[in-house]
Amino acid sequence: MGWRYRPGRGRGPEKARPAVTEKLPPEVLRIFHEKGFSAPLVGVTGGKGGVGKTTVAVNLACALADLGHRVGLVDADVDGPNAAILLGVPLEDSRPVTIAVPVIDATRCTSCGECVRACRAHALFLPRAEAPLLLGACNGCGTCGIVCPEQAVGEEQRLVGRTYRSVRGLLTLYSGELVPSVEESTLVVNGLWQRVRGEADAHDILLVDTSPGTHCNVINALRGADDVLAVTEPTPLGAHDLELMLGLLDLFELKGEVVLNRCDLPGDAGKILAAAGRHGRSVAATIALDAQLVRSYAEGTPVVRAHPGVPSALSLGRLAADLAARHLP
Amino acid sequence: MKEIVVLSGKGGVGKSSITASLGALLAQRFRLVLADTDVDAPNLHLVLGAALVRSREIVASEKALVDHERCTGCMKCREACRFGAIAGDQVPVVLAYSCEGCGACAASCPEGAVTIREVANGRINAFAADSLRVVGGELYLGEGSSGRIVDLVKREAREEAVSTGADVILVDGPPGIGCPVISAVKGADFALAVTEPTPAALSDLARVLAVIDHFGTPFGIALNKADLHEPTRASLLKLAGERGYRVLAEIPCDLSVARALVVARPFVSAYPDAPASGALAKLAAGVMALCAPAGEPQRGAG
Question: Is B126 in Cβ contact with A5 (below 8 Å)?
Fold first, then answer.
């Protein structure tokens, strides 16, 4: 279809369009909120990229550890994992995340084409009178093996990512990393959670830092969260994307508050407060963009440790103390 | 027709601000269509102050649906699902946010009680500001299959370019390196990688360059907020020199960029004399040279 454009200048930015979302079924919500461990889990997310999610998560993790709590920090931004860089620790204790992709046994295959027709990713190709070839982006769903009448589909493991675990004192950092050119970030987020869940209760509290956006990956990272911090900035883009994120938190009935980062950027903090108000959320912290925060970000020395007296560090320290008071005995 | 995609790996380094200003400058010389493929947080129209002119829902996702009349509760579907998208003990519950629509559940159901249905997962919107046209995608909250929305946005932008005789499609890409980024890169003639001089941004830049390189797409780099951290800037420039990466422009830290967001105009239009606008002119010249019909774009590396 062809779009028609009105001549002349537009009438200014459109209001955020609320997505068509029905209320989720109660059983879906109940399962979403099953965490699988008892330590409290706090999500750090935000919608827009680069608003300071990882900065907030890393500094809260350090501040909570420095208060004497055992902290697990989960960096679930597997497309661009940066928590280790901001903490100044290397990625250690690597484990592969693999998926099972089909290997067709040509001696059993009758070239019936069932697997090719069943593959909704269109990853299988059937050359004439030969066994199918795996050519496209396989997500390892296993449907080809289910439908093959000859049991001709075996499997081999293909690497899609890695998970890491770096321990520094009371703080344990778990990171996931997607192999570049692999599409499905979710596979690595799930692999990371599988690793974390097994040892979650060795920590007093867990923090999970998500990727930007409001898609299924962010939702998977926030599963079971007891509390969520939606980080934003006062620019019009920050306000727009915060509205989307708060809509997501409402939809999944997640508790949570707003963190206004870089509060001194040009913009309108009033719009952030209004968005928070529309969703019944309060602003848990306001963080200034001071020079020490920028430097500590670039140098891998969290500001709450490197410059504990500057305004940004004080705000982050207070937020950590609030979380501890709310979630830890 | 040339298709240029703007990527960064890391979010919030200035992709949309730079895309809008680059678009405003390119539009002085070329017929241009802009595309916003950051379907999770579509912001390009806000940066441009563009008004919505049309919107339609798109059906680009597939999800499992259980017919509970036929279901006997054998839970073979749950065993077959490798994405943890089916829960429940006696009655299968489909967790739509995890469902990939792969059909393993449907294939394994002995009662034929599971089907894969197409579902609406977003919208394609058209915006206009001055002479600029924007085709943008929007993913519904918590939905998946964003890569397929990106494919549709790009298809729509190409049709728009053909029907308006446009020479250039400028695509604002999503952050990250996953499926929407791969869809954004596929078919592009040139990738502009925006970064800033911080270790986190450089780490993400390396990852997105690996994806761009996987598709053999020529690229150049725009270093935004170039004076944010001198030691990291120096290491980026050294690395770029060693690898033969072309740094097309260095855009200084400039509050005009953020102020332009408040007035919803590209910063080159709102503050033409600002230092960032001067740097953008250089960037546009670099990109224009690569888009000139006479000369094919050259490789970023090599």
Answer: yes
Are A37 and A200 contacting, i.e. CB atoms less than 8 angstroms apart?
A: yes
Residue pLDDT, tens place only, B174-186: 999 999 999 999 9
pTM of the entire structure? Answer: 0.93
Is the CB of B182 inside 8 Å of chain A's CB atoms? yes
**Quick one: angle between helices A269-278 and A236-251, nearest 10?**
10
- The span from the CA of A149 to the CA of A156, in Å, is 19
pLDDT, residue A48, reads: 93
Q: Are A96 and A197 in contact (CB under 8 A)?
A: no
- Asked if residue B71 has pLDDT above 50, the reply is yes
DSSP string, A211-276: PSSSSHHHHHHTTT-SEEEEEE-SSHHHHHHHHHHHHHHHHTT--EEEEE-STTSSS-HHHHHHHH
- Out of B47, B123, B141, name the one closest to residue A251 (CB): B141
How far apart, in Å, are the Cα atoms of A118 and each of A149, B21, B53? 12, 46, 40
- Do the bridges between strand A205-209 and strand A71-75 make them parallel or antiparallel, or are there none, so unpaired? parallel
What are the CA-CA distances from residue B92 to residues A53, A143, A217, B109 (Å)? 35, 18, 22, 11
Whether the CB-CB separation of A121 and B102 falls below 8 Å is answered with yes
A317 burial level (CB within 10 Å; 0-12, 13-18, 19+): buried
pLDDT at position A282: 97
* pLDDT over 50 (residue A3): no
Rounded to whole angstroms, what are the CA distances from B46 to A183, A240, B15, B17, B141?
28, 9, 13, 10, 19
ipTM of the complex: 0.93
Task: Report the C-alpha dihedral over residues A153, A155, A161, A165, rounded to 10 degrees.
Answer: 140
The distance of B126 to chain A (nearest Cα, Å) reads: 7
- Per the DSSP assignment, residues forming a β-bridge with B194 are B222
